[in-house]
Write a structure and sequence with these properties.
Jelly Rolls, alpha+beta, binds manganese (II) ion, four-stranded antiparallel β-sheet, binds 2-oxoglutaric acid
């Protein structure tokens, strides 16, 4: 079911991965990923991103994101396994993934769209969540009363496509109460 009332398509598949898969993937991704904390420019000032990230992609592919160029790491067996599962559902082939590690309730991602030029006109974004449940908020850029939130639970798969990245921004806010670590993978297609 499309969760957006207009201007795009967002689908959420809860329990997309089994209990066993979630545990295995979370553990290996946490340990195997070369996590980095990158500086970003905010209102002309350099600050550190409030989360850790890593970028993986097809051979030699780098990726520009929020003004950063991220050098691509080579796919791991774990990532290829996850990629195959969601490609079957989404019926597309992804060639890169951005990993985000939210270490606790203070880590977050601000309002943005995934609308970089190299993602093409209507980006397809396949987003896998592992570990702690976090809130994911969507808001329409023009119709300010159109805003809603989802809970991205352990083992869920969120698919955004169509015109979503033109019209909607999304964010993962900080939380007031204690939250354990969460890993998010956003698979992308770089043209
Ligand atoms: O952590 C999430 O669920 C969202 C991540 C995201 O929006 C991104 O990597 O562009
Ligand atoms: Mn995003």
């Amino acid at each position: 079911m499309n969760l957006l009332s207009q201007d795009g398509e967002v689908y959420l598949f809860q329990d997309f991965f089994s209990e066993e898969e979630r545990k295995k993937y979370f553990k290996s991704l946490l340990a195997e990923t070369p996590w980095e904390q990158k500086p970003i420019k905010m209102f002309g000032k350099e600050i550190m991103q409030p989360r850790l990230t890593a970028w993986f992609g097809d051979e030699g592919m780098s990726y520009r994101y929020s003004g950063l160029t991220m050098k691509g790491h080579v796919w791991t067996p774990t990532l290829l396994e996850i990629k195959a599962r969601i490609e079957e559902n989404a019926q597309v082939r992804f060639n890169g993934v951005l990993l985000n590690l939210y270490r606790n309730q203070n880590d977050s991602m601000g309002w943005h769209r995934d609308n970089e030029k190299e993602l093409g006109l209507n980006p397809v974004i396949g987003s896998v969540s592992l570990g702690e449940t976090r809130r994911f908020i969507l808001r329409h850029r023009e119709k300010k009363d159109l805003k809603f939130e989802l809970e991205l639970t352990d083992g869920s798969f969120l698919l955004m496509k169509g015109k979503t990245q033109h019209f909607w921004q999304h964010s993962v806010p900080k939380e007031n109460s204690a939250a354990g670590p969460r890993i998010n993978l956003t698979f992308r297609i770089i043209k």
